Amino acid sequence: MINIVLIDQHTTYRESLKMVLEQIDGFHVVLDSSEGNWANAVADIPVHLMIIDGSMGKEKCSMMINHAITKWKSIKTLILAMYREELEYDYGKAEVMLKSSVKREFEEKIKKMMTAQKDCLSH
Asked: pLDDT class for 107, splitting at 50, 70, 90?
């Protein structure tokens, strides 16, 4: 099971993406939030992936990523970009993909990210 935290300012998009992700076998959204106090809300739950709305700004995204890494050392991060140009932004180890991606693209991207993590842990 991949536990996911979903942070997006746009409620309708966030709720829709949560429903899409929950349809994928092995994916579980443990929290969806517009930001706020998300880390404390899931402090006792192992979180494997954090998906963040890139429109919150690079600085805020980076702060959330750093905070998440202090709680869950091996957490992966996926930034959702509104525009193609944003795919080139550097968020460190975070992956970036378009918000307009379809279910299959989300599934493939997340599984690839989590497989890469397992490969690193097994070596």
From this structure: very high
